[in-house]
Amino acid sequence: MTIPAAPSVKFELSPSSAPTPTNRARHGRLSFTSAGSTKVLETPMLMTNSQRGAVPHLTRDIVARLPIEAGMISLSLEHFLDQRPPPFLAAPFSLHRYMGFHQSSSQNQQLLALGLRDSADPVPMVSFNHDESVSANTGTGAIKVTPAEYLAWTLPRPPDLLFSFADDPLGGDLSKKRLRKSITRSLAWIEEIALGAKGHVAVFAPLVGGSSPAGRELFVKLLSAETEVVDAISGWTLDVATALGPSTQPDPLAIPSLFNTSLSPLSPSKPRTVLSAAGPHDVLRLVRDVGIDCFVDEWSSRCSTDGCALDFDFPVDPNRSREAKKDVTTGKTDVGYSLFDTKHVGSFLPLSTSPLGQPSGPHPFGSEPPTRAYVHHLLQTHELTAHVILAIHNTLVMHNFFASIRTLLASSTSDVFEKEVEKFFEAYAECTPFSGGNYECMEEAKVELDRIDELRGKGSLAEKRKADRLEETAARLEEEVDKKDL
């Protein structure tokens, strides 16, 4: 099978951001040129997470009406490895067309980023990694994937951007022996993938080391010595989940400090992507303190699934009336609200009064956006349409949030941006930093969602849930054995 040539990928920092220290907010342009046409994405930007190639709760025609085009769609190869090789290799057309994100009369072609694992998957690695292979979690169980197989399954139908994988276990706190293995394996895999994909697809490589600053320094030192590999890498990825140590109350300064340890020795001329950052507070902290350029957004779809509507603004408007619940001790407002709450029974307000909830063009909902009372009714009657409406709204809010960040960075200094971030932290209540973005509104909604699930969970559905819980428990135990033995 002929492997197509790679598009040209170029990243430039705007004059207001270049030169900039590693750990400061920055504004840039990431451009992809292919077949004579160029698509430019401004950064910081959002990558919309997908499940089996679909944005959760949304059909392709709805996605085409949202501002997702300002970012990318993030795909996970393990979603398609129920059969091997993956089925899209048999298609006589591109990956974009197979996924439904190709150029057509109703939509522009979306840029696709592809990685092996789904960063939103709550199930940890369900099998051991080895020197030659990494574990992936498919619909039919755990499988081993080698770098050679990864390239063979991705290059014939290449995405616009390919995430290399690494041996970077969840949990962050690794023994010295396990940390050395992680670094050695990751360097070998990144080298094989980056050099094998060179000339065919842009590769973003992970910066590993868990929660160990010394491990991160060693990894970057060894990687920097391989100049051919570094030249073949177009950008970097950092994962919050693998950097967290064993503490249940993460230090909000620990993650930015660890990421800066990895990035400081490297040139600032390559874009940086973060996985597993959840919620606007995590995003703003990483943009401000690390200078992150791209974020994979798994969080907003979880809000939609739980029954939450986002309702915040950035920069903060002190005159805007906020309907979300306030913390009784701090007076800070939540970033959203649960639409299960009975106070919305007679509320005919739109889902958000924030500018972030308003599109720049025609509204995706049409001339009459749905009210809070309507969505509350849909949730109480178990209608899946409620989650579709919330997904449209929350996706719109998150993309407009990033557009506001870009506008502020492009039109002012980083000092002005930092002041606006502080105003946001003073106005909006934060959950535990880097803990998955479980804001109070989401916790409240989950209680009601679980209640409704219990009402619906009869017969075969109840048996399936019981089996799923047993599988997740077994997976966690297996991961603990992995940490101890390796």
Description:
It is a single chain. This protein has 486 residues and is α/β, with parallel strands linked by helices. It has helices at 60-63, 95-99, 147-154, 176-197, 213-224, 227-232, 240-243, 254-263, 280-289, 299-306, 372-380, 385-411, 414-427, 440-456, 460-485, and strands spanning 8-13, 28-34, 37-43, 45-49, 72-76, 112-115, 134-138, 141-145, 161-163, 202-206, 235-239, 272-275, 294-297, 308-310, 336-338. A hairpin with a 2-residue loop joins strand 7 (134-138) and strand 8. 46% of the residues are buried.
What is the typical, i.e. mean, pLDDT?
A: 86
Series of H and E elements: EEEEHEHEEEHEHEHHEHHEHEHEEHHHHH
The unreliable regions are none
Report the C-alpha radius of gyration, rounded: 22 Å
For the biggest sheet, the summary is:
8 strands, parallel, barrel
How many helices?
A: 15
> Strands across the major sheet, in which order?
4-5-6-9-10-11-12-13
- Shape assignment: globular
Distance between the termini: 38 Å
Helix content: 25-40%
* Count of beta strands: 15
| Percentage of residues in DSSP E strands | 5-15%
Structural class: alpha/beta
List descriptors:
486 residues, alpha/beta, eight-stranded parallel beta barrel, three-stranded antiparallel beta sheet, 15 helices, 37% helix, 15% strand, globular
